[in-house]
Design goal:
This protein has 264 residues and is an alpha+beta fold. The protein has one domain. The mean pLDDT is 84. The chain has a five-stranded antiparallel sheet, with helices on one face. Strands 9-8-10-11 form a four-stranded antiparallel sheet, with helices on both faces.
């Protein structure tokens, strides 16, 4: 019995090393699973953020462009206007192209509850001048209060902004780039035969817009790679840009709006 007891004093060095190796392998496996799950979670969160921002961008742009050209009396021609810096509207124009990433819109208020793209309500005097919503009556000659605003891309802050009066306000952030294309026909103000990135010679009857959304997540969201995302490749191919970020998550959203009272 004494000899047996002497042989049972503990683990040998080899047994201890084997146990440590097995433990390390288990810890390494669990760590890799954790890192992979965390990366997947962050990737999904970034995609959801892009999708949410993208939907909001489309909602904002379509909302403001759908208002462009509204007037209570279809027989009335929208007068020329240059009250907002950089926005020089010729007679009858609802939309003015400033550049491929900025435009101006003007429209008459529809009701007392109308707000600008910044969410600002009409002045009290303007509200009082609207006696019958959505109608030129009772006095067809009454000129409704007009709203003029500029929608533009702020490359420094990666955001879409709205300028109304002397105030410039950020509407959407997380935008890598924004492009407008203007549809027109030089011979027919109510037709679209081509889209251009610059101000067309004819009346702008439609606006096509594309936004490149960028996630604001950690650069470790994507696997280490030297290749850019497919959305970024698509954007570079469309617009001749040279974005080469290999870490961020990108998504393209786009839409087209026919300008009110310009198309037949």
């Amino acid at each position: 019995m004494k000899a047996l007891a002497n042989r049972q004093k503990g683990l040998s060095l080899i047994e201890l090393m084997v146990a440590m190796v097995i433990g390390l392998l288990l810890i390494l496996g669990v760590t890799q699973i954790f890192i992979s799950n965390q990366r997947t979670y962050l990737f999904q969160q970034a995609q959801m953020g892009n999708q949410e921002n993208g939907r909001f961008t489309l909602a904002i742009l379509s909302q403001e462009l759908l208002k462009a050209g509204y007037r209570s009396s279809l027989g009335a021609v929208i007068p020329a206007d240059n009250s907002l810096s950089g926005c020089n509207f010729p007679l009858g124009a609802s939309v003015v192209a400033i550049s491929e990433s900025a435009l101006c819109v003007q429209y008459q208020a529809t009701s007392k509850l109308d707000v600008t793209c910044q969410g600002t309500a009409l002045a009290t005097g303007d509200k009082d001048s609207i006696t019958a919503p959505y109608s030129a009556k009772p006095v067809p000659a009454t000129v409704r209060p007009k709203i003029v605003q500029k929608i533009a891309f702020d490359s420094d802050n990666k955001a879409i902004t709205c300028t109304n009066g002397a105030i410039n306000q950020q509407l959407v952030s997380g935008v890598q780039d924004l492009r407008f294309e203007y549809g027109s026909d030089p011979t027919d103000p109510k037709a679209v035969t081509k889209y251009t990135a610059t101000a067309p010679t004819g009346t702008i009857a439609a606006v096509r817009y594309s936004a490149l959304m960028q996630s604001s997540g950690t650069p470790m969201i994507r696997d280490t790679t030297t290749d850019i995302s497919l959305a970024l490749k698509d954007w570079n191919g469309r617009y001749g840009t040279s974005y080469n970020d290999t870490k961020g998550i990108y998504q393209i959203v786009q839409g087209t709006i026919m300008i009110r009272n310009q198309m037949p």
